[in-house]
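Below is just one:
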Amino acid sequence: MTTAQQPLAAPPTGVGEPTAQGQVLTAAPATATQSTDAPSTSANPSGFLSPALLAHIKSSRTVTSELATAPPDTAVSQVAESLYGKPHHVHHRASKDEQLEHDSATGTESKGIGKLLEKLHLRKASTDESVRDETGQKDKDKKNPAADQWEAMRLLTEAELDEIRGCGQWGESKPGELFLNVYAQALLTLEDNPINGLVSPSLAGATGVVPLSIISVIPDIIEHHADIIVRAEHEVFLATNFWEASGSAQTIVDAMKELSRRVIERKSKKIVFKLMYDRGNPSQVVNPHQAVDVKTYTGDKVKLPAPEEIPGIELEVQNYHVPPVGTFHAKYMVVDRKIAILNSNNIQDRVNVEMMTHIEGPIVQSFYDLALLSWSSAFHPPLPLLTSPPSYPAPLTKDSFHFGQAHPLVSTKGDLESNASKARQTLAEHHASTEQANDEQTMVPKKEVWDANDTAEADRVDDQFGSADAITQHLNTGTKIEGTDKNAPANAAAFTPVVLHSPHDPLPMALVNRAPRGKPGHGDTFVPQDQAFLAGFKFAKKSVFVQTPTFNATPVVEAALDAVRRGILVEIYADLGFNDEGELLPFQGGTNEMVASYMYDHLTQSEKEKLKIYWYTGKDQLTPLNAKDKSRNCHVKLMLVDSEIIIQGNGNQDTQSWFHSQEVNVLIDSPLLAGEIRRAIDANQNTKFYGLVDPKDGIWRDKEGKELAGQKPPPKGPLKSLVGVKGAIQRVRGEGGF
């Protein structure tokens, strides 16, 4: 067992978390550099987690509570170090296998393309290593950097289950055994660095509710952002991988201007608005967290509003990237410490279908703590609610929240039927103005309609799909394509972008994130996100469902194969042709087509029946859509295990997300939500009905045995690397809609 690093300041108890009565206590005045006794290191009877880590998890002293009592110009990183010590970043050190990757270079590889690939950490492994090659050919002795972690995973004993039950603020909820086993594996990664998960350990697990989800094109999700922003009362924290001057960005800008107008009109204090994005630049070699000046963020590439355009808002912008390949891939927003939304899309115009969850309840404080740690620097000005945590009633039940028609973001939409005609007209005008040029999409931003509540939003969006043509029109955010499926498949549900979830009591939730890693190499899997993904496959008893743009990270590919061999049904929805250029480079895992062929090639005939790989098929289509055509993609990131737990958020199942990018994901324990989300996933696309590949070889064919037009074998040899350079550079820069 690893012993947690001794912090510079020990975590006292009773501060910063809800009491039995639901009131949140605040810390006594103190500076961020106070030093007290270290956590107890007495023997732990169960022994799954070290006593030092347990002390941090059970503490109520968090980065949020300590920053609240620190001087206003204190950097968040300083507070974190005072609580948990300077992290060793053990998982960031190159493993032996990683070192071999770089020591194996020949003299000729250090020139030309080889030199570029080396900088991008995308060179081949040494010839004495057995690795699955990029073409997906047979190689049963391939290298898996997470193999030892996979082998070490085991189910918790009864005593250990009790221990992990005590490692979260669960209120009246009772986490299930599957949730606890997955959560425990995420907690193990905090031993050497308690904030390895980018959240204070005592806030890693809490409860929350999900009144609604959106599974649709980017404009629908961006408009939900806008509806929440215009209702902010004190502060907004918005994080995105890539902010690009676009119709989507303009919708957010319009919401900021509307919010400012409302602030001035009601004569209230200015809203403090923090915005983070990733636009890599040379200065980040010295400091990855770069403050963005007004001239830069109002320039043509970003086009945020100037201070005089939003007099009711104090805007501060940060550009975050860890060179060379540590992308800030996070996409979330926290408003007034009351609402968190977690989405798969960037603030840019892309042809993707995406997913977003709207979250409320105590888990929002975990998102808030995450936001502070991600910012790292001092805030100018400070967040106004930093010293004013919300309180929750006890017991906290579904009656404490609004669902469906009663939710503030829904009720003001009025009657769904009466608004249907207007919604169809608005959407028709929206998509009539959609254009595509040079692989970029221009979308008309929403400027006038601000949905007052969830019901109104659902009514406006969901009631416009009275015909197959209306669905095609809504999905055509890029190059116009004709719908080929005029009649819905048998048993297919109606297209419903805004999913209003059934009322439910607060559910056990946990953040399972990963910090960005700039250093080249493939050994960084001992992080909450990766371990949670692996544990989902390891502990599944019936089924695992995954939807992701790309499924090619070696650890997850091997975990899926292992689960299939145990008799677990594994269903994978992925994109045909998504980011194929970047995936063709050495060590990027190969394209989805290559991986599908590899997986089926390594299973027996009977085992193949348990592996179902599908290519994304649009709601209005009879055949899969090739992402290479830039007409439609699906960018959803989702895992469901045994129809009981959910992992949703930013993390793809690809090499970049597994080894390098900062990712934010939420683990939710709810068969109810898992069922509703899976039904919505299948209702809003035809993947389940038409996307299944042939288990014989992983190639899609129609009922007559014909392959999809445009399917081509990947390039080989030097050409493969040349084709991949463009995609890799886009990824490192945080571009490309990843």
Observations:
- Residues 336 and 385 are 7 Å apart (CA to CA).
- The first strand starts at residue 205 and ends at 217.
- Residues 247-266 form the longest helix (20 residues).
- The two ends are 36 Å apart (CA to CA).
